Amino acid sequence: MSRILRLVVETLGHRGVGIGRHQGKVVMVPLSAPGDELEVEIIESHRSYDEGRILRLLNPSPWRREPPCKYFGSCGGCQLQHLEISYQRREKEKIFSEMMESGSRVAREKIGGILSGQEEFGYRCRLDLRVVWDRGPRVGFSRRGSEELIPLESCMVARKKINDVLEPLGGFLREFFPWRVSRVEIACDDSSWGFTLFLARRGRETPPRERKFPEAARELEGLRSICMGRTEGGRVETLWAREGGPLGVWMTVNLPGHGEMALEVWPGVFSQVNPEVNQILVNIILSWAHKLKARSILDLYAGMGNLSIPLSTIASRVMAVEVDPRAVENGLENSRRIGAENIVWIRNSAAKAISDLVSKGERFDLVVLDPPRAGAKEIMGAIPLLDPKGVIYVSCDPATLARDMAIVQRESSFRVQEIVPLDMFPQTYHIESASLLLRPEGAQWS
Ligand SMILES: C[S@@+](CC[C@H](N)C(=O)[O-])C[C@H]1O[C@@H](n2cnc3c(N)ncnc32)[C@H](O)[C@@H]1O
Q: Is 303 in the pocket of ligand 1 (CB under 6 A)?
């Protein structure tokens, strides 16, 4: 039998879920806002908390606004569109600080205010969409909390170029890819000129060759290339690429004393989704590396060189470690084109690379790591063995960051000097951050 109760939401928790109390027990309600008075149905009961859903908004929070996107609430992509952007950022800053203070005992004064770009919508240069086939392909995101697909005509956090592609994409897939593509990634230049498609298919079958396909591709304005691989990873094929053009899209960073540096991102290779906030991130990393006078730098989880190549302009030697072989090829090509001759690329897992470097007695002034959401707990104990003056940890998940920083602070004398949260993903609960760790007895820092 369903339980219905009245609840006042007190605060916003991790993952942007509203939290209130009923008879002393915590009740978590997605899509609610602190200050909301709600009628809530309890849909799942646990020992220490209940999960509810909004039945009626009795008295709205002053921080609420009308969510601008028609899919908000059903689509699982955004969680915070019903909150004013300044309030979203204030709350993210608070949630982030609480997680760092409680999870890895970082002093409050070491945590900076959240930095953001100008754009709260239309910022994403890359969108990873699911494809479900029934009578034809349906392209979209998963429904919030379920596997069901919400077909999308547009996405408000994506660049206009990506939205222009979404409309013809279904027809294009139906005509030329009538086999099981289960994911499509659309990426566009930061200037929003050209775009690429990466198609992921399940299973082992090879796609049939389609003769009409290149002409059709030409009709999608700005399309540079189409690559295909398996969802499980492995070999990636270029199905089509415009003659004489780049294979990928461009991501530009502006470097002090060097001007603009354009990095190419191949279809299917990781890139930061928000170029404006990526520029802020690169500036922070460069300024820390510069202050540390870091001459030799190890960049772990290097992708296509988004951090390694800018860092190579201030260091004498950079070693970039990346597990994805195509990202390494892409990074090598970027380094070659830009003339960054002081970067050595290593195709390996971060754990294996560190263990090899430690056993060879290698040393670095600075270790930078930018792992995926799962974090880097397997390497935190080994990083101090490379004897760096500083460690910079770029994270997209405060929970794994707090866990990993607790490990390194427990197992070595490294302590957090500074942390900067970044609003890389407005409208969602995700928080990017950059942290600098130093040894108290080590580097001079002013
Ligand atoms: C969050 S991205 C960061 C990439 C790059 N630093 C950037 O700013 O674009 C994480 C990268 O780590 C790579 N990766 C994932 N697991 C890895 C591992 N165990 N060892 C090394 N690289 C890994 C991924 O392929 C991806 O390119």
A: yes
